[in-house]
Write a structure and sequence with these properties.
11 strands; 4 helices; 181 residues; alpha+beta
Length: 181
């Protein structure tokens, strides 16, 4: 049988440790805590407040914080598109520019656009930021929306590389495969 051990800093449990035996440094000794309502067995630790002034965060010393974001596509900001597109890529022979054409059949944005708002563009979002385009066209069949075609143009090798990083993340998240024709 496995047990879960935890260190709780300044938790409600640790406040009850003020009367526990203390070490020479003044910090309470380790105590094993078992709740009567749970099978959880954990270790609690109470850390005394520092009498020194609070330390300031030095962003130059520690660098930027990277947040992991699930790669998504949106047509309305804040509303993820659930339909997985068919993506066609073209690249110039010299590699200086390229075009990605995304085709969505029956995209979920048509279901929610009346409630959430209008389509404002094509947004590809990942941990590096947002790639966007306004070249978005809706396809209609018998007067009803049937699909969306969005075009993203890359005008430099740097933009191509950035797009490919997004597509690698997006394809890994959605189990897509690259097929060269």
């Amino acid at each position: 049988m496995a047990t879960l051990h935890s260190l709780a800093l300044a938790s409600p449990v640790s406040h009850s440790l003020l009367k526990q035996p203390r070490t020479l440094s003044g910090i309470p000794a380790w105590v094993v805590h078992r709740s009567s309502n749970s099978l959880f067995i954990g270790q609690s630790l109470h850390v005394a407040r520092s009498r020194l002034s609070p330390t300031r965060w030095n962003s130059k010393k520690y660098g930027p914080i990277t947040m992991m974001v699930k790669p998504t596509i949106q047509f309305i900001k804040g509303t993820d598109e659930q339909t997985i597109p068919d993506v066609r890529l073209t690249k110039s022979r010299d590699g200086t520019n390229g075009v990605a054409i995304f085709r969505f059949d029956q995209p979920s944005v048509f279901d929610s656009s009346g409630e959430v708002g209008e389509i404002t563009g094509f947004y590809m979002i990942d941990e590096e930021g947002v790639l966007q385009s306004v070249d978005v066209n809706a396809k209609f069949a018998n007067g009803k929306p049937a699909g969306i075609e969005a075009k993203y143009v890359m005008r430099s090798p740097r933009e191509w590389d950035r797009f490919m990083r997004f597509m690698e993340r997006y394809s890994n998240e959605n189990s897509l495969q690259f097929i060269k024709k």
